[in-house]
Amino acid sequence: APTETSSPSLKTGAYILIGVGALTMLMGFLGCLGAVNEIRCLLGLYFTCLMVILITQVAAGLVIYFQKETLKEELSHIVGSLIESYDPLNGDDRNLQDAWDYVQRQIACCGWTGAKDWENNEILINQSMTAYPCSCSNSSKDFQVDSGFCNLDVLVNGTATYADWPVHEQGCMDGVEKWVKDNLGVILGVCTGVAVVELLGMILSISLCKNIHNEDYTKVPKS
C-alpha cells in the first residue's frame, strides 16, 4: 500500500503558502510599476495585496495555535506511516525519506515518540531488529552514514530490540517542541519584523496615492 503522507491541514497550509508566494511576486511587480509610473489603481492594488497577506499570516498563526493538537495527531500519523514503510531501496519516497533522515540527524532524535516507533518498520521486522536507522545513530562509527539502515555489531541470539540500538533516546516530537521553545524569541522576532515591513509598505503606498491625488488637482488649469 502507498504511504499516506498527506493530511487536510497540511494540504491547506501548503496551498496557503503557494498562494501567498504567488501573491507576493505579483504584489512586488504591481508596487514597482505603480510607484514608477504613478498609477493610483496599481498602488491601491498593492495596498490591498499587502493587507490580504498580513491578514492571511495572522489567520495562519491563529489556526496553528488553536489547532496544534490536531496538527500534532496528523503529523504523528504521517510520520508513523513513513517509518513503517521506510525502505532505502524505494526510490518513490526517496525525497520524503531523506527529509525525515535529515530531521532525525539535525534534532538528534529517533522516531516520532521514540526509537520504539521503528520496530514497526517492515524491513527491520524481517531482520529481527538486528539493524537500525543510521540517521538515529549516536555512535561515532556511523558519523558518515546519514540514511538507510546500519547493522548491529553484537547480536544476542540473532534477535534484538530497539533498546539494543546505539540511537538517540529522544523522540522527534519532543525534539521539535524543544526547538520551538528554544527559538521562540527568534521566530516571534522574525514574524514581527515581517509584519512591520508589510505595515510600512501599506503606509507608503497610501502616502504615494495621496501625493498623486494632490498632484492631479494642482495640474488642473484654473479658470
From TrEMBL:
Its main location: membrane. InterPro entries: Tetraspanin/Peripherin, Tetraspanin_animals, Tetraspanin_CS, Tetraspanin_EC2_sf. Signal peptide: none annotated. It is found in: Membrane. Keywords: Membrane, Transmembrane, Transmembrane helix. It is a multi-pass membrane protein. One of its GO terms (cellular component) is plasma membrane. The chain crosses the membrane at residues 12-36, 43-66, 186-209. It comes from the Eukaryota. Belongs to the tetraspanin (TM4SF) family. This is Tetraspanin. The lineage of its organism: Eukaryota, Metazoa, Chordata, Craniata, Vertebrata. The gene is Cd82_1.
